[in-house]
Structures
1.
Amino acid sequence: MLQSPVPSHYDQGVTTEDLPGAAPEHPQDAARAGSGPVFRSLAIDAIPVPDYADVIVLPVPPGCPSDPQVWAQTLFSPQSMPAWVRALMGVRQAVVGLAGINRAPKDVFAVSDVRGEEALISADDTHLDFRCGVAFDAGARLLRVTTTVRLKGWRGRLYFAPVRVLHPLVVRSMMVRAARRLQRP
């Protein structure tokens, strides 16, 4: 019988401080007991059984704003996209029609909801449903981007094949640029 390398309580969106009798493994963890980030996301709430999901976490420097809507808007602004990402978005807009997929509207990455420390971006189309939760944990200074995708038919699978490979690289690059833009001197 194979054992999971990660305890099952992590799969349920709880931290070790939620478990009775769980002792912190590191001295710094003891100092922060009860204040660690808990993994929950509006993106996973919206698409609880996704065909694709990823979570990218980036520590950010002090002095950044804590408003998740500001983070989401900055993250998806053209100014936070590296030139190579803007080029990929342009290619996407140019070729999706060949597969019968609609071009993305200008406001495709608009914030649709904000709850607590997380802003949600929602986009539904004929080929996929997309959710992106942009969360900022001010205490730990962690930016977390959670993406969930539900694919629809062959067009969704065809479209998402190259996206699946590039998505983590694109999002991480955008996160780094957004953090630089939002850092106060």
2.
Amino acid sequence: MPLPNSPSLPATLDTDARLRSVARIARLMDSQFRLPGTRFRFGLDPLLGLLPVVGDLSTLAVSGALLLTMLRHGASGAVVVRMAFNILLDTLIGAIPIIGNVFDFAYKSNERNVALLRRHYAEGRHSGSGKGLVALLLLAFVAISALVGWGSVLVLRWAWQYFEAHPLLSN
């Protein structure tokens, strides 16, 4: 019977420093700050989402890096797909002007993913790494990033043309 400190046993979410850092970064992105006088919490994700294109892509990159770290530490394919869906939903709806900003304050995809990983670890089903799945997810995130960037450019171009045709201040 292996000893508890044996290197052959997988690390748990709370004992592995890299996985603890995933939980800390998820908290920073989703619920680090509290609105004074309320129980409402928010993080950097919705604040960065206020910056067109750059904010959405930066939060997608952080979420993708967290997902890859979780995948390397034994998250199963089914859990990774659910995590990727959380990130995809956050990215696509978060990219919609105004509605996406409100959505970013309410939907905390990174903390949802950490909760999925904690449940996965609690069930004792963590094992191995899925390098093929990592490559597929990386390709999907690159494609999504390109689509978000392209859509944002289209919206900004439309807004520019609209305000050129309908100036706010007329001489």
3.
Amino acid sequence: MSPHVPQSPAPARPAHQDRLAIGELAARSGLAASCLRYYEEIGLIRSERTAGGQRRYPRSTLRRVAFIRAAQRVGLSLEEARTALDRLPEDRAPNATEWNTVARTWTSRIDEQIAELERLKRRLTSCIGCGCLSLRKCGLYNAGDTAASGGAGARYLLGDEPAAPTARRP
């Protein structure tokens, strides 16, 4: 039996190794350095400066950048991403309660987007159904589309006559 030899704790990593240069953060996150500088400018991420003025980002910034990208993927604006980030810890992964608070906000936002897309889909269907075949008369751009009022289908192709244009007064 071997005697128990106490293990010495792992040496602490120097603080500079816990920081990423902007090039490292760009490579790891898949974003251009200019994008990261913009995110920093608008307060989504933070860096510290070295004595030489170089940016150094905490490793937790990778998580924040991933979060911002996920927010954008579901259609949130950068301002909405900032609001969500303000609810989460900056230096660690969120716990389940913290994440659920943000996720509920995203769920309602996604539901709003789905409803808007459904409305757009209905409008496109009715536009195609009217058969006006003209962007100038399209129901999406001209809600008073006269061809659509004649019923479904390509009204002009089915024999309906377009209304005579009204003369404009000088």
4.
Amino acid sequence: MTTHATPPTDSASLAQGAGDSVIDRLIAANRTYADRFTDPGMDARPVLHVAVVACMDARIDLHAALGLQLGDCHTIRNAGGVVTDDTIRSLTISQRALGTRSVVLIHHTGCGLESLTEDFRHELEDEVGQRPSWAVEAFRDVDQDVRQSMQRVRTNPFLLHTDDVRGFVFDVHTGLLREIDPAS
């Protein structure tokens, strides 16, 4: 598997020239993908009845890291992999409408949120004249933030299945997951 979208090699796409944007390259790659695509005939319900909440970090290939195939899980990604109101929204729909029963939370080493603070919001407000409606959710201790995320899932009244919630830290240098004890 490549770690980047490569430009297509067909002559029509190459004729577009070197000035193509990244989005143009992605759309061209999609055309190549669609040419070989066959409908897998799947339902929207994940086969393994699991939802994975993880950081959006580009170094983490969740499906490969967890041995997952297309259709196995719901994947919810955001900055830090933190459990926000929108994450709860997605998990609620995943559980109540689409049958998931387990939740895996994955943070990682070297996360950018470890170097930010809520001052980021204030700087944005100063720059654009409007305060963001969302919190940065920055953290200093990745293990503790995983525990907090597990607690947010386990205590949320909208979620039906809160007994099988486990949290991990993915090491971006080794590819290994380290499980976090919620009680520590």
